[in-house]
Amino acid sequence: MSDPDERPGFATDTHDRWIPRLYAAMERRAPALLDLRRTGGWAGLYENTPDHNALIGEAPAVSRFLYATGFSGHGFLQAPAVGEVVRDLYLGRAPFLDVRPLGVGRFAADAPRPETNLV
C-alpha cells in the first residue's frame, strides 16, 4: 500500500508514518494479517505521470520511436494488453484499443485537458 500523503520527489528514506493507515486497511480487508509480525521496510520511487495514466504511443518527432512507460506497479498487470498494443503499433496496425489519449502530446503546453476515462 502506498502512502497517499507522500509528496512527489526523489525521497528514498523509510518511515512508519503510513503504517496506521495500512493497519486500518488490513483490519477491513485482511484482519488475519494483523497477527503477523512486521519486519523491515521498503523505499523506492514510483514511475507515474502527472495524471497517473501510462504513456503509450509513438513519438511524433522521432520516427518509429515507440514508448510504453509511466505505469509504476500497474505495468505488470497491464503488460499483456500493452504488449499487444505495442506490437500492433510496431507492425503499423490499429491496436484493439485506441491509445491516442495516452500519448505524450497530452502534456504539451498547448494541449487541451479533457477528462478521458479508459476502461
Describe the protein.
- This protein is α+β, with helices and mostly antiparallel strands and 119 residues long.
- Helix content is 24%, strand content 7%.
- It is built from 2 helices and 2 strands, in the order H-E-E-H.
- A hairpin with a 7-residue loop joins strand 1 and strand 2 (66-69).
- The radius of gyration is 19 Å and the shape is elongated.
Low-confidence stretches: none
Number of helices: 2
Give the spatial strand order of the biggest sheet: 1-2
Share of residues in strands: 5-15%
Biggest β-sheet description = 2 strands, antiparallel
Q: Strand tally, please?
A: 2
Strand pairing plus helix content: what structural class? alpha+beta
- The separation of the N and C termini measures 23 Å
Mean pLDDT: 86
Radius of gyration: 19 Å
The H-and-E topology, N to C, reads as HEEH
How much helical structure, as a percent, in the residues?
Answer: 10-25%
Envelope shape: elongated
